[in-house]
Write a structure and sequence with these properties.
heterodimer; A: 220 residues; mainly alpha; 11 helices; 0% strand; elongated; B: 431 residues; Ammonium transporter fold; two-stranded antiparallel sheet; 15 helices; 2 strands; 69% helix; globular
């Protein structure tokens, strides 16, 4: 069993639902079926979807979260609580809470901004390889001119469609980040396609748990 | 809408009948006044056409903004024209440059009163041409201030050159032999070149032109509006050109049919050009082609033969399509095609007067006079508008910032949304 892969699966499950019993059940099933294999996000999501009978929105969140978690180092991911790992233990006692809640201490606007980045860049990728290539080149060479320097560094280290933004970004900095990204995409694919991608990204973000704590529409 | 059209048609028929009845108590002057009154309504109705055409050609997030610009510039423009413009244009013009009397005019006769009203609604057309060209990024307040200056100062001064003065004190262009029946240059080109000046200052919409030179099409949100707006303009144009009828109204029929010929010529010309270029029969191009045809016969609808009107309109239709592409190649982002339709076709239509003047075609002296007028309009329209908007930009930002542009001017400038039922996904909760 890979400790990193377990952490990835656990993190993704906690993003999808807060129900401890469901998380434990799904995690144990994943552990038995795929725990010893190299992590394949699509395979893992398919497995959990079949096992739990997920809705499209839940599947989308699980997919996005697992991708996001898989781009992080082991140290950045929360430990899998003992009661989740141990098939025989009881689910959810108050003693577990501290560990259980330590999924990701980023503020919701930061997580949503990362999600916005993922959705926009994935959208560009679907629009065509040359656009995606252009976006990547510009992000690497120029970054996002108006964004804070810590964001610039994060953007230049972005892996494909994933970015790991600094935890301490405030609301306004996240808005600037998202707006700058929109402007870049607008330049590459044109405003109609950029608006379309942006609206779809917001629609996706509205279905995440973070949307209950921060309105993703504020990002644009 | 139907009742308005029926009313106008009945009024038209009744006035025609009166004109033919020698025993009627109405003399020719009264009939002309009635006709001019109908023309006032028709020209004002053109604003509905502009409003729908421009409203349809912008993205849904900017609909309120562009429609309100159209609506407001009629109000402010009319005030400016009445207070200052009429006097500059038609006041005593000893210098040949500007009139210096008849500010805030009031008239003693019915005919004069209608004439003032006709000129007021006519003037508002020049300013409204600008609104579509600069749509989706020009701030509302500087726009209406600019529109006020165009209607109160820029248009009337050129009007004084081309139409002003009496007896031996004529406007300098008029004295030169420049002829522009209903304002192909005086109204349309001035409006078109004003739009060009404003566009040079504010630049294109974000994303219209890519970093590597590619042109991104930004289609309007409601193309049926565009076609309806185009038809309304066509309808109103009978009043726009028809109001330039002579004293005894003997040339009214000629003006009206030539107006119609120009429009159908414009449709044929744009269709032909689109067909040979095999880029699809674009509705926006064909509607603009019709409008380009109308502008092309506006200067000479009373001096063209029917065939000439058709040809002038056809060439206008082609000019619309070709010049729209030309502007894009210079990265000039004209949202509705105002410069091709009003600027270029206005210039062409003014020159066409010299080429197709019935009974005196290709008169060199007339060609020179028309050419001077076209160049003067370009220099004055472009230069004065750029000066005004540049001065405004020193004290107030004339372009919205990129975040406001992204959200749309309806939200950022007006706190109102054109289609609130259909725009929920991307609308901020705090708007």
């Amino acid at each position: 069993m890979s400790k990193l892969n377990s952490k990835i699966a656990y993190t993704a499950l906690t993003r999808m639902t807060a129900d401890r019993a469901v998380i434990k059940e799904a995690f144990q099933h994943w552990l038995k079926s795929l725990g010893d294999k190299p992590l394949d996000v699509f395979e893992s999501v398919e497995l959990i979807e079949t096992f739990l009978g997920l809705s499209t929105a839940e599947k989308k969140i699980l997919m996005v979260s697992m991708h996001s978690a898989s781009s992080k180092s082991e140290a950045e991911l929360p430990n899998v609580p003992a009661f989740i790992l141990d098939a025989g233990s009881e689910v959810g006692t108050e003693d577990d809470d501290l560990e259980f809640q330590a999924v990701d201490n980023k503020a919701p606007h930061v997580i949503l901004s990362e999600g916005y980045f993922h959705a926009m860049v994935t959208g560009v990728q679907r629009s065509g390889g040359k656009y995606y290539q252009e976006v990547h080149e510009i992000l690497l060479d120029e970054g996002l001119p108006e964004a804070p320097s810590s964001v610039q560094a994060a953007v230049k280290q972005a892996k494909d469609t994933r970015v790991d933004l600094p935890r301490d970004l405030n609301d306004a900095e996240c808005q600037t980040f998202c707006h700058e990204l929109y402007m870049l995409v607008c330049d590459i694919v044109g405003p109609i396609a950029a608006d379309d991608l942006s609206y779809k990204a917001i629609a996706q973000l509205l279905e995440t748990n973070e949307a209950s704590r921060y309105d993703p529409k504020k990002l644009i | 809408m139907k009742s308005i059209i029926v009313f106008l048609l009945l009024s038209l028929l009744s006035s025609s009948a009166l004109a033919q009845d020698a025993s009627s108590s109405l003399d020719a002057s009264a009939v002309r006044t009635i006709w001019l009154g109908i023309c006032c309504a028709l020209v004002l109705f053109m604003q509905v056409g502009f409003l729908m055409l421009e409203g349809g050609l912008v993205r849904s997030k900017n609909t309120v903004n562009v429609i309100l610009k159209n609506f407001t510039d009629v109000g402010l423009g009319s005030v400016g024209y009445w207070v200052v413009g009429f006097g500059l244009m038609f006041g005593v013009n000893q210098s040949g440059l500007i009139g210096l009397s008849d500010f805030m005019p009031s008239a003693s006769t019915n005919a004069e009163t209608v004439d003032i009203l006709y000129n007021m609604v006519f003037a508002a057309t020049a300013a409204t041409i600008l609104s579509g060209a600069v749509a989706e990024r020009f701030r509302f307040l500087p726009y209406v201030l600019g529109a006020f200056f165009i209607t109160a100062v820029i248009y009337p001064i050129f009007g004084a050159w081309a139409w002003g003065g009496e007896g031996s004190n004529l406007g300098w262009l008029r004295a030169l032999g420049f002829y522009d029946m209903a304002g192909a240059t005086v109204v349309h080109s001035i409006g078109g070149w004003a739009a060009l000046g404003a566009l040079i200052l504010i630049g294109p919409r974000r994303g219209r032109f890519g970093r590597k030179g590619d042109v991104h099409t930004i289609p309007g949100h409601n193309l049926p509006y565009v076609a309806i707006g185009g038809f309304f303009l066509w309808f109103g144009w009978f009043g726009f050109n028809g109001g330039a009828v002579n004293e005894d109204m003997s040339n009214l029929g000629k003006i009206l049919i030539n107006t119609h010929m120009g429009s159908i010529g414009g449709i044929c010309g744009s269709l032909f050009w689109l067909a040979i270029n095999k880029k699809g029969f674009l509705m926006t191009s064909i509607v603009n082609g019709a409008l380009g045809g109308l502008v092309s016969v506006t200067a000479g609808a009373d001096v063209f033969g029917l065939g000439s009107s058709l040809v002038a309109g056809m060439i206008g239709g082609i000019i619309v399509v070709v010049s729209a592409n030309l502007l894009a190649s210079f990265k000039i982002d004209d949202v509705v095609g105002a410069i091709p339709v009003h600027g270029f076709c206005g210039a062409w239509g003014t020159l066409a007067v010299a080429f197709f003047y019935q009974g005196d075609m290709f008169n060199v002296e007339r060609i020179v006079a028309q050419l001077v007028g076209v160049v003067a309009a370009f220099v004055w329209g472009l230069g004065s508008t750029m000066a005004i908007f540049w001065a405004l930009s020193r004290v107030y930002s004339i372009r919205v910032n990129t975040r406001e542009e992204q959200r749309g001017l309806d939200v950022s400038e007006h706190k109102e949304i054109g289609y609130s039922d259909f725009m929920t996904t991307h609308t901020r909760a705090d708007v």
